[in-house]
């Protein structure tokens, strides 16, 4: 059978654009790609990129305070102008969107700026009714924020909305305790918004190392976020221009904006999946094997829609590996076991790879090398902010099983630590590296004695 395309990609986000560009540009495949919104997807348009720029924008208060501590008597954060920032942000996102589009065109990908869905396992139907046939189809449709099922949920905003606000709210509530809630609370607080974060657990960032979670929770409070733990929303009501939130402890409070950061779901609805026989997992994600192949052999899926590890570099790696395997005669699988990540908080970020102390202790035995200290830079300025470095080491093999850093630029540090940890480095390998002095990161190679040991269970 002759097909219009060797590969048709549904979704122009992190995973889709990488797969399309490499398949067409490097492996010579005939590729089509449909994107219903803006090229670049979540990360570029409404995720990592605008979020990180807003994190940078939100640093002024802490930077000014730090500099006052260094003798800059008049150091002042000044007044933040959302309109100025927003104009620049829009221009930057337009630039990136254009760059992603031209990258595809240069590689020879045919773009369709419309929604696509399955007509069958070799045919996609575009929103204008055109049908395209393809030997292989890649689902790279990402995820969508989900709101909890509470009365008045329609009054709440989602993460996409932060980047579209005409003006900043005076007072905001964030609901949730994951990546997005913590990063958005840090941003809004830093930009001068009176920020409340309500989370049902006893510390934010469930799933991360407990000590780091406690430090992140304490830091949110220290910077002025009103962190209310053990609290869930029961409902939202409109009151004039504001929104009243009712909580499960009977309390209520008024806000100019309420954001739900209560997780994301794989974007699989209205995709015509019923015309294909593709199987979904219990969580509604596209079920794939280690080659990102679905239960239908001609259809593959990568990125958040498969709900494996929902991060941009993972989606990119999955997309690249898929096309190398299918079109490049170079079979490649993605190892999802060791994935470094960072939560961009201020003043200290959380960078992490490998097992948490709790996971390592459960496996046992494990030696914990941990240092909690006030870094030179902020301590001199009079700040009490504490930093943490932690290595979890298997006492039998000496292998480093996990590394957790809570400190300034921990995202940058964990990227570098991820190299030896991924290579299977031992504690002795870390110790053999000469320290770079004076840095905060040197602690990673100078922790000589075991802080505590968790025995075998
Ligand atoms: C606020 C926020 C901050 C984040 N920060 C980080 C971070 O700092 N670091 C990090 O690694 N990750 C971060 N992430 C996660 C990261 O954005 C995602 O893991 C990544 O974008 C997933 O890529 P993807 O290709 O699977 O999907 P997406 O990037 O979501 O792309 C899917 C694309 O498909 C399109 N689409 C969907 N259905 C159709 C259809 N039927 N037809 C045509 N087009 C369709 C969508 O419009 C979208 O453009 C963040 C996410 C959010 C929400
Ligand atoms: N720095 C980064 O790499 C980064 C940043 C942002 C997002 N992301 C990615 O995006 C994903 C989505 O982020 P997220 O923060 O929305 O999801 P998340 O799964 O990290 O956190 C969701 C939070 O909402 C809480 N929650 C769920 N239902 C609730 C309810 N009914 N009431 C109250 N709380 C409820 C959960 O307990 C959890 O704390 C992340 O898992 C991550 O993969 C990554």
TrEMBL record:
Manner of cofactor binding, per the entry note: Binds 1 FAD per subunit.
Catalytic residues in the record: 437 (proton acceptor)
Annotated EC: 1.8.1.7
Binding site residues for NAD(+): 176-183, 263
Annotated S-S bridges: 43-48
Listed GO biological process terms: cell redox homeostasis; cellular response to oxidative stress; glutathione metabolic process
GO molecular function, one term: flavin adenine dinucleotide binding
Gene3D superfamilies according to UniProt: 3.30.390.30, FAD/NAD(P)-binding domain
Statement: the UniProt record of this protein carries the keyword RNA-binding: no
A GO-annotated cellular component: cytosol
InterPro entries from the UniProt entry: FAD/NAD-bd_sf (IPR036188), FAD/NAD-binding_dom (IPR023753), FAD/NAD-linked_Rdtase_dimer_sf (IPR016156), GSHR/TRXR-like (IPR046952), Pyr_nuc-diS_OxRdtase (IPR001100), Pyr_nucl-diS_OxRdtase_dimer (IPR004099), Pyr_OxRdtase_I_AS (IPR012999)
Binding-site list for FAD: 52, 304
Domain spans labelled Pyridine nucleotide-disulphide oxidoreductase dimerisation: 340-447
Pfam families: Pyr_redox_2, Pyr_redox_dim
Domain FAD/NAD(P)-binding: 5-319
Keyword line: Disulfide bond, FAD, Flavoprotein, NAD, Nucleotide-binding, Oxidoreductase, Redox-active center
Top EC class of this enzyme: oxidoreductase
Cofactor: FAD
Family, per entry: Belongs to the class-I pyridine nucleotide-disulfide oxidoreductase family.
Name of the protein: Glutathione-disulfide reductase
